[in-house]
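cron nightly-structures :: item 1 of 1
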Amino acid sequence: MEYARVSTANQILDRQIGALQQVGIAPERIHVDKLAYAAHLRETGHTIVEVVAETGITRTTLYRHVPPRSPESVAAGPVGVAESDPGATT
């Protein structure tokens, strides 16, 4: 059994699988760590819907096993006082 997984932004799962197949490893002998790949996709900004489509993992499983994105990657950015309350004075 051979193993392929993605844990950093520089790794690409398809490239790893292709490399294993090029050296003669049969596809059924390649274990893909889909949860690690799903976590990588979430950390790089993909939505749950995109992760489901890419990995085939159910939403329930993703919510149960993949940590949520950090607030910094979800937030649109700081809102200034003038933007958040038009009646406020600075």
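cron nightly-structures :: done
The chain has a mean pLDDT of 76.
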